[in-house]
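ESCALATION

Customer reports they have been waiting on this structure for their group meeting. Please prioritize. Original submission:
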Amino acid sequence: MNILVIGVSFSDIKGFPFGTYDPIGTNHGRVSITHGGVARNVAEDMAVLGAQVRFPLMLGTDPIETGIRQALEMAGVDVSDEVRVKGTGSGLWLAVFNEKGELAGSVSQMPEVAPLEEMLREKGERLVSEADAVVVEFDTSPFIASYCCELAQKLGKPVYAIVGNMSVMLALPELVAKTRCAIMNEIEAGKLFDADICGMTDEEALDFVRRQAAQHAYRAIVVTRGPKGSVWADIENDVCGIVPRINCRVVDTTGAGDAFFSAAVLALTRGDSVQTACEKGALLASRVIQTEQSACPADCAGMFRSK
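Update from on-call: job pushed to the front of the queue and completed.
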């Protein structure tokens, strides 16, 4: 499987308290810096799982970005179409977690993406034509989201959207219908459909999501619900279902959604059902949240090397 991933990389600065997290006081704890960003995480996850991944990496002069490139290459990601920029080519994500390893608050700083847009204008058609599927971080920019969907439709390639802060998806909701399968969490789906999905039972959430997907002409949709698992609806084949989460020890939830997305998209790309895709996604997510890294462990290698 040849996957093209379009998006940006981040450096994640994460803080973990030693005791109970106090949201208004000083918390003694531990701070770590890791490579991150949803597109970068997905590129690494997919490569570790056995896919051939191409990720045009925006690379600046900051020393930490050299480390990002090296880590991706070690995972097997093709970054040969790198986009050189002045200054910093990656973003920053500052996050604080509570004593349970759950995200308590965060601030994200996006990099300037004009150089990536220019690269797509020059090389986008070739890159998309050589891929079996295209993964796009929609929130990178409205142009990138729209242009990649346009190229994928023109060349007959399935496209999948990575959801970031929802800004582009909320501004251009019609783009979601152009994806092979819309994959998002319940908070994101709640914003998109203007509803409190978090407060619904599994059966209520499944019925609501199925109706919304049919109404908006989606081919398929998956909504992850954290500890409640996920619900899915394959509108094309008129089937839907609920997939429970896999119980495990939680260390750090960063990257769990990206891992679910990566495994699910690879499963769909090789022809698996939406049900199987969700099961694969839940399995990989359960592995990631048991580590402090944002990408899947190396012992997950080969999950998709054979059908």
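Sent to customer with the following note: The chain has nine helices and 14 strands.
Escalation resolved.
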